[in-house]
Amino acid sequence: MCTTVGAGDTPFGISLWSGRFTQSYLGRRPPRRGYCFVVWTGRHVAEPTELDPEEAAGYWSETLAVCRAIEAHYSPLKMNISLLGNGVPHLHAHLVPRYREDPAAGGPMALEDWRFDDLDPEDPEVLEADAASLRALLEAQSDIERAP
Ligand SMILES: [Zn+2]
């Protein structure tokens, strides 16, 4: 993840936005529509506890900015933010919008929904249109800064 972050689209997601602290992506095989992930772009860090206070504030501000864009575009009932990293130990957050018709409403997403390779890919045209809307919503947020 260290080596691919910031280098554009990946097999897992299309690049959404580059901030001072993070790179965000819209997932190609979303467990729920609008699933995004936000990757720390500084030095190699596995745990958020390794960030200094300024880095931590920047990381969270940019992660929450992506959550706000998801909320504005998809109108989920609830956002789930998961910091796992058991499989890929480089700091990243999974942002999962949860909807009224969610199959696991009232609890965490089922384990099989984390097996991204087994999930259906989103229609590429839908993905591109959603990404354009999310980018515009991110650009409109004044509390975050683009990567220099
Ligand atoms: Zn790393």
How would you characterize this protein structure?
With 148 residues, the chain is α+β, with helices and mostly antiparallel strands. Helices cover 26% and strands 20% of the residues. A five-stranded antiparallel beta sheet has the order 1-2-3-5-4, covered by helices on one side. Strand 1 (13-18) and strand 2 (22-27) form a beta hairpin. The radius of gyration is 14 Å and the shape is globular. The chain binds zinc ion. The site of zinc ion (ZN) has 4 residues, from loops.
- The radius of gyration is 14 Å
- Listing every helix as H and every strand as E from the N terminus to the C terminus, the arrangement reads EEEHEEH
Oligomer description: single chain
Q: Classify the helix fraction into a percent range.
A: 25-40%
What ligands are attached or bound here? zinc ion
Number of strands: 5
Query: Main sheet, how many strands, which sense, barrel?
Result: 5 strands, antiparallel
Q: Which blocks of ≥5 consecutive residues have pLDDT under 50? A: none
Report the principal-axis shape. Answer: globular
Query: Strand arrangement, largest sheet?
Result: 1-2-3-5-4
Q: Strand portion, in percent? A: 15-25%
**Averaged pLDDT:** 94
> Which structural class matches the secondary elements?
alpha+beta
Calculate the terminal CA-CA distance, rounded to whole Å: 21 Å
Report the total helices: 2
